[in-house]
Structures are given as structure tokens and as C-alpha cells.
């Protein structure tokens, strides 16, 4: 398993309270652009009331990428991911643009 430590050169907002996690990016009108939302704890997401697609990077407690979902469209769901502790919601295309890989460790 790759143990490369990576950073994502975006401004990442932390959603670590009940209400911040509940709200997430719902109802936001403007797409993400070089920014993201780190939802912790979180092992599944929904795209209800979303106005744009995102890339979702699920991390273990240690920050290791355990699953990635590219170009997740509004009104879709990601079921709970085994070993996922948090998720970073990023602009669609980020996973390819930064060549992220399962097993890499993300430092925020």
C-alpha cells in the first residue's frame, strides 16, 4: 500500500459540529473552486439539495485515503464506507487533477 503523504493546495473548511456536518454544502449556489469541506466524523454522504457535482475523498482516522468518488452528482448517495472516519468534499475533477491514490495519506 502506498504511504505517500500528500497535501491538497486548497482552502479546506472544517465541519466538525452537528450543524456544520448536517448543512455541509447543501443549498450552496456557487461551485467549489480551489476549496473544500472536511466533514469529520463522517463515513457516508448524500447529495440532496446540492447544485453541483463534487469529488469525495474518504479518509481513515490516520488520514489514509480509503475510497474516492469522482464527479458525484446532485441527488446521489454514497453508502457507509468501511474504515472511513471523515470525508473531504472537493471540486469535481480534483482527484484526477492531483492524481490522488488509495492508500496515500492526506495532511490538512
TrEMBL record:
Coiled coil: none annotated. Pfam families: DUF192. It comes from the Bacteria. PANTHER family: UPF0127 PROTEIN MJ1496. This is DUF192 domain-containing protein. It comes from Neobacillus mesonae.
Amino acid at each position: 500500500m502506498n504511504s505517500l503523504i500528500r497535501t491538497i493546495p486548497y482552502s479546506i473548511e472544517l465541519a466538525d459540529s452537528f450543524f456544520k456536518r448536517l448543512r455541509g454544502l447543501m443549498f450552496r449556489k456557487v461551485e467549489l473552486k480551489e476549496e473544500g469541506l472536511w466533514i469529520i466524523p463522517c463515513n457516508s454522504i448524500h447529495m440532496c439539495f446540492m447544485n453541483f457535482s463534487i469529488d469525495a475523498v474518504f479518509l481513515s482516522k490516520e488520514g489514509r485515503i480509503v475510497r474516492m468518488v469522482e464527479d458525484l452528482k446532485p441527488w446521489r448517495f454514497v453508502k457507509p464506507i468501511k474504515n472511513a472516519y471523515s470525508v473531504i468534499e472537493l471540486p469535481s475533477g480534483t482527484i484526477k487533477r492531483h492524481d490522488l491514490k488509495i492508500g496515500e495519506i492526506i495532511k490538512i
